Structures are given as structure tokens and as C-alpha cells.
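G., the chain you wanted modeled:
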Amino acid sequence: TLYFEGSYGLTRDAVRAHELLQRAAGLGSADAHCQLACIYRSPAKYNEKKALYHDQQGAIGGSTSARHSLGISEFKRGNFERATKHWVIAAGDGSK
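Predicted structure as C-alpha cells:
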């Protein structure tokens, strides 16, 4: 994400940041999956199917943020019981 922000003297480069996140996700990073889900929910790259996939993979990998996002997705679809289950799991894992 440092490329997204242009932090630590790096030039802002969204394409490079996306490539690196995809690479990290491919290597099993739950946080990378969670960040990719956020990207796919942004107006610039909106793709709910990809966002949901990355949230699921992130949650499986232990990301509490991804688990929380799954709860939001389920809530928006009217699946309140499933949403609650995701949020309880996220809270139990120390969701921040």
C-alpha cells in the first residue's frame, strides 16, 4: 500500500501497488486479500464479485477486517443471521 500512498519516498503508483497486492495474495497473505477487496469496492475498480472473493479468502486466512466486511456484505443482502455470525467471529478475533 505504500505505492498507493506514495509513502517513504516512493512515487504513487496504483498499478504497481495492485500488482504487488495480487502477488502477496497469491502467496497467501490475508491482509493483501482484504486490501484487494477494498480496491474492488472502490468506484475506480468496482467489482463486487472480486471483492467478495478476496474478503472470503482474507477471512479464511484470518483477517478480522475481511471477516467484518463479509458481515457487511451479508447484511446488505438481507442475510442477517449470517452477518451476525461473521461479526461475532470477527469480534472474537479482536476486530479493530
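The two ends are 19 Å apart (CA to CA).

Shout if anything looks off.
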